[in-house]
Each structure stands twice: as structure tokens, then as C-alpha cells.
Amino acid sequence: MNITIINTGGTFNKRYNPIKGQLEVPSDNIALDKITQSCHNVEFEIKNIVSKDSLDMTDIDRQTITDAVIESKNEKIIIIHGTDTVDLTSAFLKEQVKNKKIVFTGAMVPMSIDEVEATMNFSMALGFLSADIKDGIYLAMHGVVVDASKLKKDKSIGKFLIQE
Ligand SMILES: NC(=O)C[C@H](N)C(=O)O
């Protein structure tokens, strides 16, 4: 299986900078590399773009992500994205991309702090793409992979829940 990963940052990637004394979004793929090294039957193309907390993303960033999706050689794509505005970016993408299988994912806690949640969310996206699915824009978080418009972050409890 061939998959393009578009890494846009978000908490999934964050690491603590001991000099500045704060968590930062790095522009590398260290968190992803740790997971993908166990995926022996998948050929990954990884593009690292934007590298922001998604609260700082603009529509210019969203167009950059959309262009990367359109230019991608693979029809199966995982987008690592911050959880706070993944709803905005997935809706933005839906306006322009109809012919690919795209799964957004991310994490509430950085991979560098808790490997379980980030690895689980990414693995669900990967497993979903290995099945026979329709073109669409999906979100893999907290135990489910569904149409991205149906899974919303409940900011009062810090969890993604399905909206009926
Ligand atoms: N958990 C997260 O990813 C939240 C972060 N503020 C973001 O949207 O990038």
C-alpha cells in the first residue's frame, strides 16, 4: 500500500524545549518516524508542511495543505493536524478535493509525552485506508474513523465525540 502523509504540526508532534521552557511544534517528523518504522507493508511519502499549532493556521495555510493533497501522487492520504481547527481544514479541503481518500488525525497529548493516544489515532487512520473505502474526507480520533464532519471536539471535556 502507498500512502502520502502530510504532516502539518499540531499537538501530535509537540516536544518540550528545555531552553525556552515550553512545548513547541517542531518542523521534523520524529513522532511519525517512530510509528511508521513498524509499518512494514506500507510505502510512505511524507511531506512536512505548515508545522503550526492549528489555532495559528490561516486560510493561506489551508490552501497550502489543499495544494499538497492535489499534487500528491497517492490517492490515499493521512493528514496530521492540530485538533482545535481540524473541522475548519477538513471543510476547506472538501470544497476542492473529491477524488481521494483522506484521513485526518492528530492527538490531544503530544506523542513525546504519551505514545498511546497518538499511535492509536494514527493506526486507526492507516487501518481504515487499507480497507476498501469510498473517496472522502474522514477523521480518525478516539476509537472511530468517520466522515470528518460527523466527529467533533468537545472542548469542555477534551474528547472527540460523534455528532448524530
Ligand atoms: N491537541 C491539539 O492539537 C490542540 C492544538 N491547539 C492544535 O490544534 O494544534
Low-confidence stretches: none
Give the percentage of residues in beta strands. Answer: 25-35%
CATH superfamily membership, which one? L-asparaginase, N-terminal domain
Q: What does the radius of gyration come to? A: 15 Å
Mean pLDDT: 97
Category from helices, strands and their pairing:
alpha/beta
Main sheet?
A: 6 strands, mixed
> What is the H-and-E element order?
EEEHEHEHEHEEEE
Q: Could you tell me the number of beta strands?
A: 10
Shape: globular
Widest beta sheet: strand line-up: 4-1-5-6-7-8
Distance between the termini: 32 Å
Walk me through the structure.
By secondary structure, the protein is α/β, with parallel strands linked by helices. The protein has one domain: L-asparaginase, N-terminal domain (Rossmann fold). 28% of the residues lie in helices and 32% in strands. The chain is built from 4 helices and 10 strands. Strands 4-1-5-6-7-8 form a 6-stranded mixed β-sheet, with helices on both faces. Strands 2-3 form a two-stranded antiparallel ribbon. Strands 9-10 form a two-stranded antiparallel ribbon. Asparagine binds next to loops.
